[in-house]
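Hey, quick one: can you model this chain's 3D structure?
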Amino acid sequence: MFVDSHCHLNYKGLVEQQHDVIARARDTGVATMLTISTREREWDEVVAIAKVHDDIWASIGIHPHEADAHPHVTAETLIARAAHPRVIGIGESGLDYYYDHSDRTAQARNFRAHIAAARVTGLPLIVHTRDAEDDTLAILGEEMGKGAFPCLIHCFTASGAFADAALALGCYISISGIVTFKNARDLQEVAARLPIERMLIETDAPFLAPVPHRGKTAEPAFVADTARFLANLRGMSVEALAKATSANFFRLFGKARA
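Sure thing. Here's the predicted structure for all 258 residues.
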């Protein structure tokens, strides 16, 4: 049974057919989904989905793209909203220097607020990082020095050196459908050698549909295709990979296990 550790069930492309999307995921063997928020107005939406489905959980967070629009969201705000029984993660948050949709200082402030919330609640921090490896590692390392917190690097596309440094900090790493792309050789090399006990899988649906679904709207059912590709890449059975990554999810997101 698979876990889609990162999807956006409230996003356009999925929300219009949400019932069918969830049914197709279950039919494909996806036993658990985590639907992620990226801005404050989505918090009620993702929690509402999780409240009516025992196999779906929610996160509370502000994406780095949205940092400029959410200066009022503090660690205390996140902690209060994360108390809901269906909320099991903090994020996604982090740094995105590829688009720079928000001021980098605002992104860092937002990131640190999420880290503080993760530290207090014990809920995993879900990290988005793009073209910001050095600053992401610097902030994570500095904040870990103030007190440890659980951490997941979502939709990993960074360098092997970044992966090694994140693992050394205790982070887990989630692999998306990008790993199936023909031009993703560097990512494939990293994914082939990641310690299996620190790996999760995800779709980031409705984005990044894996082969053989390129060009389509991604949905949680497609996590099975990513799992099959990864299993072949690592020379293991898809059943073993599914079992390991699912166990890792519940080890990291302990509130869901409880």
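One thing worth noting: The CA atoms of residues 115 and 125 lie 6 Å apart.
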